[in-house]
Amino acid sequence: MDRVALRGLRARGHHGVFPEEREEGQTFVVDLTLGLDTRPAAADDDLTKTVHYGIVAEEVVAVVEGEPVNLIETLAERIAQTCLKHEGVQEVEVCVHKPSAPITVPFDDVTVTITRSRV
User: What span, in angstroms and rounded, lies between the C-alpha atoms of 51 and 86?
Assistant: First the structure.
């Protein structure tokens, strides 16, 4: 399976279990790896035979900016399901970063990574 990756998609969301997270919001960062067969697109040099990563990026940002959830696990699942709606995408790995998570000790990042497939 071939891979198309998008790294560092940024969007402001209001996800979290604490009221201040819901009210103030914060930036979330998403990395995606889409698994698909790119041979038909490459053979014909045809965008319609692959995944349009620009559209996927817009859809993922809309999910992050959309309805708030408590957990980034839930957010990752919603993003994965959005990606799998694209016909050629057979598998997706989603990593959601929450670099401003409300943690009381110094840290660089909090992430949740999931892999989902059509099978």
Answer: 7
Among the listed residues 15, 86, 97, 98, the single catalytic one is 98
In the chain, the N- to C-terminal Cα span, in Å, equals 14
Which residue shows structure tokens 């598998």?
91
In the predicted model, is pLDDT for residue 51 greater than 80?
Answer: yes
The answer to whether residue 98 is catalytic is: yes
> What does DSSP say about strands 111-117 and 2-13: parallel, antiparallel, or unpaired?
unpaired
Helix (H, G, I), strand (E, B) or coil at 85: coil
Beta strand ranges found along the chain (DSSP E): 2-13, 26-36, 91-97, 111-117
The arithmetic mean of pLDDT across residues 95-115, rounded, is 97
